[in-house]
Amino acid sequence: MDLFCFIECAKQSRSPEVLFDLLVSCSSEQGFSRVAYGALTDAEPTRRPEYLPAAVTVNFPSAWCERYAERRYNAIDPVVRRTTMQSAPFLWDQLAHKYQLQPGELRVLNEAKEAGLKHGVTVPLFGPFGQLSVASFASRFDDADPEYRLSRLNALAWQFHHAFAEIAPSSEGRCHMQVALSEREKDCLRWVEEGKSSWEIGVILRVSENTVNFHLKNAMRKLETNSRTYCVAKAIRLGLI
Predict the structure, then answer these.
(1) Comparing 41-45, 143-147, 226-230, which segment has the lowest mean pLDDT?
(2) pLDDT score recorded for residue 51
(3) What is the pLDDT at residue 44?
(4) Any idea what DSSP says for residue 149?
(5) Residue whose C-alpha is closest to residue 223's, from 236, 213, 214
(6) Are residues 64 and 34 in contact, defined by beta-carbon separation less than 8 angstroms?
C-alpha cells in the first residue's frame, strides 16, 4: 500500500484503532512492523488502559512494554528525551554517535534490541500551540535499513498524525477547517509532494526561489502547520490538492 492508498483509506476511517492498524500494515511493508504513537506535550492523550503511559497506542512486544513501564524507562529513554531536541526524523542507531549518552540511556537502547526492536526511526510531529507528538517505527530484522525507509515512514507518520487528530476525541471538540489556497500555493505544494526543493520549484514555475518560499509559508500558515511535509499531507487530506 503506497502513501496515496493510505490517505484514501485513512479518510474513510472513523476509528483510532482501525487507523492505527492501517499505519502498522503500511509500515510493515517497509520492514517496520512495531509502531508507537503518542503525545509528549498534551495534558492527557486518549489511550486504552493497557497501553504505555504517554502513548496513544503501541504494538511493541508486551514483555518489553511491561519492563519499560515497571522500570520507568520513559524518564531515561534517549528516544523520548532527544525527540524534544529534534526538528526532523532521526534513527535510533545514530543517537549514540550524535550524543554522549548516559549509561542508563544506553541500557534502554540495548535492552530494546534484545526485546526485538533491532532498528528504529522516530518522527517528531508538531501541532498548533507548541504541541509535540511522536511516532516511532521499529524493525525486528537485523538487516533492516532505517535510513533508506526514512522518507516513507516520515510521510506515513505525518499523514497518520493529521488523520488521528481529525477523528480522536478532544476536550475542545473536533475542528473542521475551512481553508482556501491560491492556485500558486497549490502548485508549490504539489511540487513539494514530488520532492522538489524551493529552487527547483522556482525553475519549474518560472518564479524566484523567494517567491516559492513566500507561497509555501502562506500555505503553512493557512493550514496551521510548521513543516512542508505536514502541510502537504494536510492539504491532501482536506482535498485541497
Answers:
(1) 41-45
(2) 34
(3) 39
(4) H
(5) 236
(6) no
Cα 111 off chain centre by: 24
Q: Report which secondary-structure segment, H or E, holds 113.
A: helix 103-114
Sequence-distant (≥ 6) Cβ neighbours of residue 130 within 8 angstroms: 41
pTM score > 0.70 for this model? no
The three grid cell numbers given for residue 207, joined into one nine-digit string: 518564479
What CATH number labels 183-237? 1.10.10.10
d(CA 123, CA 82): 11
- Cα(227)–Cα(115) distance, rounded to whole angstroms? 33
Per domain, the residue ranges of the chain are: 3-167, 183-237
When pLDDT is averaged across residues 128-140 and rounded to a whole number, the result is 86
CATH code of 3-167, in short, is 3.30.450.80
Whether residue 149 contacts residue 31, with contact meaning beta carbons closer than 8 Å, is answered with yes
